[in-house]
Amino acid sequence: MLSFFADFAYEGARSVAGPFLALLGAGAVVVSSIGGFGELLGYGISIISGPLAMRTRQYWGIALVGYGIQLSAVPLLAFARTWPEAAGLIFLERTGRAIRNPPRDTMLSFAAKEIGYGWGFGVHEALDQAGALVGPLVVALILVAEHSYREAFAALTVPVVCVFILLGIARKVYPRPVKFDDTSTTLPSTSLPRVFWIYLIGAGLVAAGFADFALISYHLVRHVLHVPMLIPVVYSVAMAVSGGGSLLFGRLFDRFGLRVLLPLTLVSAAFAPLVFLGGFWVAIFGAAIWGLGIGVHESIIPAAVSTMVLPKQRAFAFGIFTGIYGAAWFAGSVVIGLLYDKSLVLMVLFCTVIQIAALPIFAWVARRSPAVNVTYEDPKMRR
Fold first, then answer.
1. At 163, is the secondary structure helix, strand, or coil?
2. Is 125 helix (H, G, I), strand (E, B) or coil?
3. Of 146, 159, 258, 354, which has the highest C-beta tally within 10 A?
4. What is the CATH number of the domain that holds 114?
């Protein structure tokens, strides 16, 4: 339930970030760049928090700091009067996410060992997206009733308080999550296998071609829906697809390994032409495909990292992985925003081609990890 309420809060705010920024005077390039830089922070700072968690083993302490920073920023959006102020709070929320993600994912990987990494991350993502479904719908209802973004942001204080209560309970019940998987007391090596770095290149390409929802919502309001109140509903649909898909993807990953990334990457790359070149129903379907892609990003992609590295290396690996992943997302978002103002066709080609370029890399990695039970002890993984 912690994941549910956390996503309830920050995904509820994220669902209307694009139109809110536009209302405050931001243009397409600014909206896309804010979204991309937010993702850069949301992943990039993990390069610091991941290794720190690995060396100190203070998984709970670092995660609690991250949650505190992230969720405190959400209701403060109600007080933003200019787009730079709103952008600063968006960046603060993403910074907190970056701090808490590596230790959280590491604790999750420890707990998921017995049930399967794909299923463990898939269930977690499903709970995330259940919150991401409800949060935007609540925001949409408030916008319909009050016609005020500020009222909607202020209402998200309720799930934020629920998260802090649940964090306290979880910390008390599971004070040492490391006991589930990691019994070694020696300091872990920071040398990661070659397959991890090659896999990271492919994941970075996918991230670079994946538009942030801030730009999608900006486009939908200007050219497709024309009704800002409907944007959170569209986002909820995308999150419902993401949550349901992540459960299925997790099971498929545990059974077939990284091979499942090949068709899923190909399908999720179709979001760009559908959203940005389609009419009403085609764009809505494209937003659902975008949500499917988010399910892949948040379940299979991190679950695969758990199979490639030693348990004690995971906080470090997750930190490095998410940091570079976020840098790729930001660079891609800037390019996508610039292309959006010049040519939608060129922008769609960029998004589609760069994601498809990851397929040969995923195929290479999958051949060296044909099933999820090929773990870090397998010498193939060190080639």
1. helix
2. helix
3. 258
4. 1.20.1250.20
pLDDT at 378 exceeding the cut of 50: no
Domains identified in the chain, total number:
1
Contact (Cβ atoms closer than 8 angstroms) between residue 335 and residue 194? no
8 Å CB contact between 276 and 347:
yes
Residue 186 pLDDT more than 50? Answer: no
- Beta-carbon contacts of 80 under 8 Å, excluding residues fewer than 6 positions away, are 24, 86, 89
CA 23 centroid distance within chain: 25
8-state DSSP, 259: G
Q: Are 216 and 275 in contact (CB under 8 A)?
A: yes
- Compare 1 and 181 and report the one with higher pLDDT: 1
pLDDT of residue 183: 46
Residue spans of alpha helices (H) in 45-116:
46-56, 59-76, 83-112
**Assigned domain for 218 exists:** yes
- 139 within a domain of the structure (yes/no): yes
Distance between CA atoms of 357 and 201, rounded to whole angstroms?
A: 10
pLDDT higher than 70, residue 77 = yes
Neighbouring C-alpha atoms within 13 Å toward the C-beta of 21: 30
Q: Is residue 183 included in any domain, yes or no?
A: no
Q: Which of 35-49, 133-147, 236-250, 369-383 has the highest mean pLDDT?
A: 133-147
Least confident of 85-89, 147-151, 182-186, 307-311: 182-186
- Look up the pTM and report it: 0.70
Q: Do 317 and 376 meet the contact criterion of CB atoms below 8 Å apart?
A: no
Higher-pLDDT residue of 36, 365: 365
Establish if 252 belongs to a structural domain: yes
Enclosing domain of residue 103: 2-174+190-382
